[in-house]
Fold HTH luxR-type domain-containing protein.
Amino acid sequence: MIDDVIQELKKLIKNLKSENKPIVRKVIKNLGVALNEDSWKEFELRFTEVHQDFYNSLESKYPDLTPNERKLCAFLKLNMTSKEISSLTGQSIRSIDVARTRLRKKFGLTNSEVNLVDFLSTI
């Protein structure tokens, strides 16, 4: 439903006066954020049903991970590509790749032959 409203607003913005466009763009962005938050909550619920101990193990071994890093770990645990994660989160592929590099560093995998996805599958 929110997605439908966003699409309608995107169509309407073309016909608006230029001084009103920034206001509508802000509304579109805020709706998108709300949609992503709801989608993430649903994803997290389903993910924890299947991988019950993943977050607990991750938290106990790596307590310094941020919420976004834990979210990225969940996506990677499902063997998702940077492109797939990018489309779900609204971040650029480059941002996802940088975040993956930072995760590898936090996990101590920078000079290792171990793949990040393989590493997360053992947690």
Summary: Residues 13 and 24 are 7 Å apart (CA to CA). The chain has seven helices and no strands. The first helix runs from residue 2 to 12.
